[in-house]
Amino acid sequence: TPHFQSGLFDSLTEVTFDKVDKTKMLEMFSQQNECVKFVKEVDGLLEPNPVMAVGNIEVWLQSLVDGMQTAIRSIIKMANSAVFEQELEQFIFGHPAQISLLGVQFLWTADMQGALTIARKDKTAMSKANKKADALLKEMITITQRPTLGKNERKNLETVITVHVHQRDTSDELTKKRVRDPSDFEWMKQCRFYWRDELNTVIISICDVDFEYSYEYLGVKERLVITPLT
């Protein structure tokens, strides 16, 4: 059962301690009661990585921050390949909400970047990528109509849809403007998401600026509709 509550984190509100070893933290929970296990990636598998609450409070709270970031980074690393292999519904509901969203952003970025790279040779590449983005959105909307969705599942899916509507609109705009080069400013000015194996991290690119993902656990969040102002 959860025993730990703190105002130190935006979304991590509780953790579960091991029933035998009371210093061992096994899982973290969001305000919405989403559960994420403390894990780390080892040779392509997620292994348990409990956080130890030992020593001074500032020491084990830092261990908690490190454990949270390690878990989120490890799950994202696995999700980067899973989003290309799994069915959409399996992927979205099989991962923590923030990683479901990030995976769909990885997918869209890769599809558009790939289409732009070959667009000069293959005149249909951008149109195909645009249609794929549209089909993905329609599939998500179909899933929302199921009465069996839980509260967190619905909020998670609605957040992914909110972001993907913007991605679909961007795909449409790039196609209409006949953008056919990944170095074109119309593409470069977009928010693009990449898992970089050589750096073992997520890079978010806008124009020629790269930001590293911070790996803070976010729980199940709503997102504003993306407009030129937001």
Structural commentary:
This protein has 230 residues and is α+β, with helices and mostly antiparallel strands. It is built from 6 helices and 9 strands. Helix 3 packs antiparallel against helix 4, helix 3 (97-118) runs parallel beside helix 5 and helix 4 (125-144) packs antiparallel against helix 5. The termini are far apart.
Short description:
The chain is an alpha+beta fold and 230 residues long. Helix content is 47%, strand content 17%. A hairpin with a 6-residue loop joins β1 and β2 (24-29).
Compressed to H and E, one letter per element, the order equals EEEEEEHHHHHHEEE
N- and C-termini, Cα separation: 39 Å
Strand content: 15-25%
Low-confidence stretches: none
Radius of gyration of CA atoms, rounded to a whole number: 19 Å
Largest sheet: 4 strands, antiparallel
What global shape is seen?
elongated
Report mean pLDDT, rounded to a whole number. Answer: 92
The level of helicity is: 40-55%
Number of strands: 9
Oligomer: single chain
What key phrases describe this protein's structure?
230 residues; alpha+beta; 4-stranded antiparallel β-sheet; 3-stranded antiparallel β-sheet; 47% helix; elongated
